[in-house]
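Entry 12.
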Amino acid sequence: MIASLSGIRGILNQDIVLPDVARFATNFAKAAGASEFLLARDTRKTGPAMCKAVAAGVMSVGGTVLDYGIISTPALFRESRVRNAPAVMVTASHNEPEFNGLKFIAGGSGIGKETFDRVLGKGGALGRQFTLGRLREGGRPCYVDDLAERYGEGSCEGVKVAVDLGGGAAISHAVPLLRRLGCQVSSLNDSYSVFTRTVDPVADDLALLRRTVKEKGCAIGLAFDCDGDRLVIVDSAGRKKSGDYMLTLALRRLVLETGERKVVVSVDTTQAVDDVARESGCSVFRSKVGEANVVQMMKEKGARLGGEGSSGGVIDGDFNNCRDSLLAALAIIKALRKEGDALYARVPAYHQNRIALRMPKRKVKKALRVMARMYEHPELTDGLKVVIPRRGWVLVRPSGTEDVVRVSAEATSAAKAENLTKSFAGMLKRLSK
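Predicted 3D structure (C-alpha cells):
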C-alpha cells in the first residue's frame, strides 16, 4: 500500500482490504467533524465494493453520505467546495485498473498532513460522535453547469474535437459539456470500465485518438485518465503533445483570461511556462513536486493559477484546488476558436527526458550533498536542480516513498535532454559508491 497526501493506493485484497478502507473512512469522518460527507468513484471494477466500505465507515459514526456514483475527481472537488463538505473519492487516478484507492477532500481542497495522519490512525482521530448515519444519492453535481456558465453556452461553436475518454469518469461530463459549448465531438473509448489503452494518457501513444483527429479534421484531441483530472492533448496534425506543453498552452490562455500576475508550478515543470509568463509580465514561483505542494504555495503567494507539467494538470484556484482537465481543455479550445491552428506555434516546446534509478536513500543524500557543492546557485526546493545556461536544467529528486531517485532534464533538443540525464545519472552513481 502506498500512502501519501495524494491519497492511499494499492491492489484490493493484496495491498489493502475492505476493513482497512472502512477504518480509514471512519477516521476521516471523526477528524473532519462534519455531519455530511460526499462520496464518488471512478470506473474501476472494485469501486462499488470500496464505496460501500467507505459509506459503512462514515455511517458508523453517524455521518450522512451523499453518493454521487461515477463522477470525475475535479467534479467532486468542486462539489465539496460549493457545499463546504468533506468528501472521499474512490480512485487510483492514473494507475492501471487493478489498483484502487482513496483521495480525501475537505472544503474543496486536499487534506493536510495532520488530518492524513489521523486517517491512518497515527494521531488518535477525534471528533464529534453522531447517531447512526444514513446513505443518500448525491444527485446532479454542479460541475458541468458551473463550467458552462463560466465559458458560455455556444462559446466554442464549430470547433471539432476528438475525445478519448479512456473508459473513465470523464465520460460523465466531457462530451455533454463540450456539446453545450457548441463543439462538434467525436468520442472514443466511451464505455464505462472498458480500458482499451493505458490508463495514464501520458504513458500511451494514443494512436486511435491521433488517427481520429486527422481523419475527422479536428482542431484538437483530448485524452483523459481514469478519474478525469489528467489531460493530454493531440494537435490538429495528429501529434501527441507533452503534459508540460499542454500546461503551458492552457496557462497562456488563463493568464490572458483572468489577468493574473502570479503562477505556481512544480520544480520539474517546463521553463516554457517562464517564457509565456514573461510575455504577460507574470511572475512564476516553483514548489516541491506534488499537487498538494503546488496548491499550498498558491495560497502562500496569493496566486490563482498553477499546475504540474509532468501530470498534465492545470489548477485555477478560483474554481478548483486540484488539477482540472476539463477547465484546461476549455481554455485551450476557446483560444483555438479565436486564434486557429496558429495557436500551437505560440508556445515554445522544449524536450524532456526522465529516468529512474533504484538506489538507497542514504546514498542518494550523500551524493546530492557533494553535487550541490559542485554548482553555483543550485536550487534545493525539492532534491537538487541545476540550471545550465544555454542548455537547460537537470533535477535529481529522491522518491519520498521508495528507494528510487528520479533524474529529469529539459533542453532545446531531445538528444541534449537525454545526454543531460545520462550525465547526471552517471555522476550520481559514482558519488553514491
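Annotation: The domain at 2-137 is CATH 3.40.120.10 (Alpha-D-Glucose-1,6-Bisphosphate; Chain A, domain 3). The radius of gyration is 22 Å.
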